[in-house]
């Protein structure tokens, strides 16, 4: 079976690649989860985050933005002592602030899904990457998403983080054309 090279032989990375990465996502809670995880990934590998994802889910109340938005200094300090997650105060505090902004976006637009997919015109962008061709790190769409999120008060939402989010959430299909997931996602990418 042909797939992208980045999962290598890692079983968890293969599972993520084969079942999640690039699948169009419209569930607000899951979109928030990817926003949080991609922010924590900044400066780290996705593999590091993926292997800690279950611990992140436990530590951050299953990525419930309503719950996270109420975190206080005591809860943040508790998270800073949790060795099972990335203990970066700026990223933890950004998660709390982003939960608050996320809820504001949901209130204003009806859902985060409705807001976030506007940056790809409510459809998946299919790149035609050849084997060995690197995916871009940013795009005009991720630039626009980053600018809008920052204007709304979000933190850790630079264009590179937004691009990784768009890949994860299926807004962009960056599977190489020879990967078995590329054509499957191309056929099932209606929003």
TrEMBL record:
Q: What are the EC numbers?
A: 3.2.2.20
InterPro entries for the chain: Adenine_glyco, DNA-3mA_glycosylase, DNA_glycosylase
In terms of Pfam families, this protein maps to:
Adenine_glyco (PF03352)
Q: Does the keyword Secreted apply?
A: no
Q: Name one GO biological process term.
A: base-excision repair
Q: Which UniProt keywords apply?
A: DNA damage, DNA repair, Hydrolase, Metal-binding, Zinc
Q: Which reaction does it catalyse?
A: Hydrolysis of alkylated DNA, releasing 3-methyladenine
Name of the protein this chain belongs to: DNA-3-methyladenine glycosylase I
């Amino acid at each position: 079976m042909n797939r992208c090279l980045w999962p290598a032989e890692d079983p968890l990375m293969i599972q993520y690649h084969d079942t999640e990465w690039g699948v169009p996502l419209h569930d607000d809670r899951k979109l928030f989860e990817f926003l949080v995880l991609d922010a924590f990934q900044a400066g780290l590998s996705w593999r590091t985050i993926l292997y800690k994802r279950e611990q992140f889910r436990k530590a951050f109340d299953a990525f419930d933005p309503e719950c996270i938005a109420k975190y206080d200094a005591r809860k943040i300090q508790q998270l800073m002592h949790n060795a099972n997650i990335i203990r970066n105060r700026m990223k933890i505090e950004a998660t709390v602030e982003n939960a608050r902004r996320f809820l504001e976006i949901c209130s204003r637009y009806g859902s985060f899904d409705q807001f976030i997919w506007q940056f790809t015109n409510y459809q998946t962008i299919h790149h035609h990457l050849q084997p060995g061709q690197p995916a871009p790190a940013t795009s005009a769409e991720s630039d626009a998403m980053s600018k809008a999120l920052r204007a709304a008060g979000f933190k850790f939402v630079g264009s590179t983080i937004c691009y990784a989010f768009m890949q994860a959430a299926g807004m962009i299909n960056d599977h190489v054309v020879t990967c078995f997931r590329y054509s499957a996602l191309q056929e099932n990418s209606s929003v």
